[in-house]
Design brief:
By secondary structure, this protein is α/β, with parallel strands linked by helices. It is built from eight helices and seven strands. A seven-stranded mixed β-sheet has the order 3-2-1-4-5-7-6, sandwiched between helices. A hairpin with a 2-residue loop joins strand 6 and strand 7. It is globular. The N and C termini lie far apart (42 Å). The structure holds S-adenosyl-L-homocysteine (SAH), 3,4-dihydroxybenzoic acid and magnesium ion. Residues 39-41, 65-67, 70-71, 88-91, 94, 117-118, 138-140 line the site of S-adenosyl-L-homocysteine. Magnesium ion binds at residues 39, 138, 164-165.
């Protein structure tokens, strides 16, 4: 019952506020045809990321966890000329689908996908003295504490950090959760709550993608 209502409300909101987008629909079709799991952000959440990146005036965006690049494309569309998204993905198959989707969406010139475990790519980015205005964390949840720490290190005053999937239908409350994703995100909350470098909040969401939530932080 609740899920049907959340889905219907999402459809209502998206019908009014999100332009029909043949490219993004084709991207989701390509992902499904390639057998990727349908765990992309919801359309209205993709647009929220896009709007947050625009509000932040982000020129250099980092994404951890590409999948088929659905969220990457929303973020790439927030960039002005000369801006870039660097997106990190461990799966060769996901990377192949994502690169093809970047061509399809006309953002391949603005997106750099780095293949490999994100922790390795993050070290490499640090060695290159890379810095980011906006960081979206959406990969393997056990590493969430590390990813937030890297986001701060690769950020500057004012860098915006968004972490996806921080509520998981309330499972976040379960200290002994059998879902291996939960301990990492719980450790991330402990860490962010005590991190003097960050101002943060988190918001629960319901909709097409069930009951979940995101954390939003700004580097002080
Ligand atoms: N941001 C995407 C969804 C990402 S799903 C969207 O909303 O459209 C999570 C992705 O993280 C998967 O593609 C998975 O392969 C990738 N991933 C998992 N562990 C990883 C790691 N250690 N390093 C880099 N990517 C990883
Ligand atoms: C999962 C991962 C995600 O990033 C997401 O948005 C939803 C689900 C998962 O691994 O189950
Ligand atoms: Mg996610």
């Amino acid at each position: 019952m609740a899920q049907e209502l959340w889905t219907a409300v999402d459809q209502y909101l998206n019908r009014h506020l999100l332009a029909h987008d043949a490219v993004l629909e084709a991207v989701l079709r390509a992902n499904a045809e390639a057998g990727l799991p349908p765990i992309d952000v919801a359309p209205n959440q993709g647009k929220l990321l896009h709007l947050l990146a625009r509000v932040a005036g982000a020129k250099r965006i980092l994404e951890i966890g590409t999948l088929g690049g659905y969220s990457t494309i929303w973020l790439a569309r927030a960039l002005h000329d000369g801006g870039t998204v660097i997106t990190l993905e461990a799966s060769e198959k996901h990377a192949r689908v994502a690169r093809s989707n970047f061509e399809l969406a006309g953002v391949a010139d603005r997106v750099e996908l780095r293949l490999g475990p994100a922790l390795d790519s993050l070290q490499e980015l640090a060695r290159e003295n890379a810095a980011f205005d906006f960081v979206f964390i959406d990969a393997d949840k056990p590493n969430n504490p590390h990813y937030v720490d890297w986001a701060v290190k690769l950020g500057r005053k004012g860098t915006v950090i968004v972490v996806d999937n921080v509520v998981r239908e309330g499972e976040i409350l379960n200290e002994g959760s059998a879902d291996g994703n939960i301990p990492g995100t719980r450790a991330m909350f402990d860490q962010v709550g005590n991190d003097e470098r960050l101002d943060a909040t988190a918001v629960q969401t319901v909709g097409l993608k069930k009951h979940d939530g995101f954390l939003l932080a700004v580097v002080k």
